[in-house]
Amino acid sequence: EHLFNLKFAAKELNRNSKKCDKEEKAEKAKIKKAIQKGNMEVARIHAENAIRQKNQAINFLRMSARVDAVAARVQTAVTMGKVTKSMAEVVKSMDATLKSMNLEKISALMDKFEHQFETLDVQTQQMEDTMSNTTTLTTPQNQVDMLLQEMADEAGLDLNMELPQGQTGSVGASVASAEQ
């Protein structure tokens, strides 16, 4: 139940972030209209609102990511609890088998235990991978740089950024042709 509530809260925070993004865009449109009318005081107010909405959207996203990380940790704890319970049952079975000293049962039980242990390793590795992916940035830096440059090109701006060496692509070619 708590895990569901955490995931629900993360989605709600994401929705709030998207709502703030939409409101920011609406404020930017109002800025343009106010500037076209020559009303700089109103444009300044809309600019402040747009900046506030953008900051709020970022904060909502940041909180959503944190709640997602907590949900992943809770999921790990639940999984580990199930595995621990399963291992306890295996140990009880091993005790009963050892008392009877039936080597066939011991061998079968050890095989089963080894299989469950391997499954535990796989699950643990998967959960660790999931945790590291939810709490770290996985976007390659060169893709971020290329997108920033592309957006700057569309807006007709110069970012004065240097892309990492060896990065040649359509974005770099379009920048060179635009400068010529």
From TrEMBL:
InterPro entries: Snf7_fam (IPR005024)
Pfam families reported for this sequence: Snf7
Stored Gene3D superfamilies: 6.10.140.1230
Biological process terms in GO annotation: vacuolar transport
Superkingdom of the organism of origin: Eukaryota
Family label: Belongs to the SNF7 family.
Protein name (record): CHM1B protein
Source organism per UniProt: Sinosuthora webbiana
Gene (UniProt): Chmp1b_0
